[in-house]
Amino acid sequence: LTSVFAIVALLAGLYLGWRWLDPLMGIVGAVIILHWAQGLLRDATAQLVDRLPSDELPLFIRQTLESEPATWVTDLHIVRVGSRSYAAVISVFADSPRPPEHYKQLLALRQELVHVSVEIHRH
């Protein structure tokens, strides 16, 4: 797109004498590139700090696991591993803990959770 602007500006300067159009298109191109760079910076920063799009997934995990009797989620890490897929590492304290597979099965309703690791501690 910026190349098209540059070519149009050069042709207009050459054939129409609009010499002011070339620097103007340079400024327009710079603004477009800055906009792209800002979006790239925002997306890269979100990826680097493991930011989630919303608090809904961690809330679902906590509420689902803590609905089990005498069970508490003490540590929860969620990492994006694809465009719409996540991995979760969960530490669970329970008075009468169940096997990790039980807790994983409770979370299987959420298809975006493609990998779940559950660490069990007896309270």
Description:
The structure is a single chain. With 123 residues, the chain is α+β, with helices and mostly antiparallel strands. It has 2 domains: 2-48; 56-122, Cation efflux protein, cytoplasmic domain (Alpha-Beta Plaits, 2-Layer Sandwich), CATH 3.30.70.1350. It contains 4 helices and 3 strands. It has helices at residues 2-16, 21-48, 56-66, 100-107; strands spanning 71-80, 86-94, 113-122. It has a 3-stranded mixed sheet with strand order 1-2-3, with helices on one face. α4 (100-107) links the parallel β2 and β3. α1 (2-16) runs antiparallel to α2. The protein is rod-shaped, with a radius of gyration of 26 Å.
Rg is: 26 Å
Helical fraction equals 40-55%
Number of domains: 2
Q: pLDDT average, as an integer?
A: 91
Widest beta sheet: strand line-up: 1-2-3
Beta-strand share of residues: 15-25%
Continuous helix count: 4
Number of strands: 3
Distance between the termini: 61 Å
CATH architecture of the largest domain: 2-Layer Sandwich
Oligomeric nature of the chains: single chain
